[in-house]
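Priority: medium. Attachment 1 of 2:
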């Protein structure tokens, strides 16, 4: 069925009544709360749906509520309809059968995430989503460089090694007990093990760890002597990485929040010649998702709301720095010219990432790999600070 016809069908089903959807989502951010309020106004105007934002301090409270309803036999009139969840809560809800199954592929706008090319859209910290939750937004690893001294930045790991040889001491990464440091190791482990990548999306084993780290150690053994302080001293926090870029000691660094780079330039923490980009061999992505609970009464309305959240209109609004600044999960190669135009800022910052350039997204490995990689790294390289 054509996408527009599916849109109309879902809309027609809602036209005969005004259903209420209870959206349980973290309420600790004025920007996020304001955006959800805008969504509520849009779905009421466009689909006659009443969307209530139930602001949570801890998402696990809503998970516990659904679990209690299931234990009490309330299988059709749940108080939680939509829920914004992270990987840990998703695993708990999936394990206890608290989520509606196999509904995401029925959303017309889900196809715009291009899930066959972007596995991060259907994997939540290494766990297949099986159509039980829809991607909503993402943070992904980006690199930034000083264009005053670097004409062509590296676009993949082999080029990064050549860059380090040409600019000795001008690149480093944080220790792996920092989130950005362990993210760099995950990115390298995925990119360097293309044929055996599936191992990283299963619970780690001693054999799998030994296999995956062969290529990783070979690469890092060659990279470390070329890094800042010959790799003998490494920064402990992501903020120190940006500070070294600000003082000009580094020419290349990376971040998990693309929006913070132009903001740092505006604060004069980084030079005006800084430019942001994504590696072409892949970008480690951390996607956040929305689920529909198994006992939701208004399933059609809940799906309509999620389909709207995945629309170019809603994703473009969310990505605006003045609104939320959350990256879109849509694949821009799937959008029309008019849809792409929605994402163009009124005035593009020269240091901002070109968000209309599509790059492959690497899903986070299975959660068990985080501690395994960190411990193996310290065992091999020791404390370096």
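Attachment 2 of 2:
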């Amino acid at each position: 069925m054509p996408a527009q016809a599916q849109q109309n069908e879902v809309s027609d089903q809602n036209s005969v009544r005004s259903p209420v959807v209870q959206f349980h989502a973290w309420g600790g951010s004025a920007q996020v709360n304001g955006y959800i309020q805008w969504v509520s106004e849009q779905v009421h105007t466009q689909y006659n749906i009443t969307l209530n934002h139930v602001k949570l301090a801890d998402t696990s409270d809503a998970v516990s509520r659904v679990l209690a309803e299931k234990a009490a036999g309330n299988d059709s009139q749940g108080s939680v309809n939509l829920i914004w969840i992270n990987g840990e809560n998703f695993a708990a809800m999936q394990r206890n059968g608290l989520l509606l199954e196999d509904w995401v592929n029925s959303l017309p706008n889900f196809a715009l995430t291009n899930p066959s090319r972007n596995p991060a859209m259907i994997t939540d910290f290494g766990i297949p989503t099986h159509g039980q939750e829809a991607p909503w937004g993402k943070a992904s690893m980006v690199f930034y460089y000083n264009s005053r001294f670097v004409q062509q930045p590296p676009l993949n790991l082999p080029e990064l090694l050549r860059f380090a040889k040409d600019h000795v001491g001008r690149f480093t990464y944080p220790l792996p007990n920092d989130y950005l440091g362990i993210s760099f190791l995950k990115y390298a482990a995925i990119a360097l093990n293309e044929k055996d990548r599936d191992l990283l999306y299963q619970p780690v084993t001693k054999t799998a760890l030994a296999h995956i780290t062969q290529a990783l150690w070979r690469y890092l053994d060659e990279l470390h002597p070329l890094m800042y302080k010959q790799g003998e001293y490494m920064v402990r926090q992501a903020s120190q990485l940006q500070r070294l870029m600000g003082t000009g000691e580094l020419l290349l660094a990376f971040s998990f929040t693309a929006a913070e780079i132009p903001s740092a330039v505006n604060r004069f923490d980084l030079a005006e010649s800084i430019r942001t980009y994504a590696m072409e061999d892949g970008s480690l992505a951390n996607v956040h998702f929305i689920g529909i609970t198994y006992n939701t009464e208004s399933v059609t309305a809940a799906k309509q709301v999620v389909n709207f959240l995945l629309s170019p209109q809603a994703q473009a609004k969310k990505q605006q720095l003045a609104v939320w600044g959350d990256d879109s999960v849509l694949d821009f190669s799937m959008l029309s010219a008019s849809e792409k135009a929605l994402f163009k800022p009124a005035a593009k910052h020269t240091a901002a990432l070109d968000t209309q350039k599509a790059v492959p997204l690497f899903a986070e490995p299975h959660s068990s790999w985080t501690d395994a990689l960190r411990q193996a790294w310290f065992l091999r390289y020791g404390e370096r600070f």
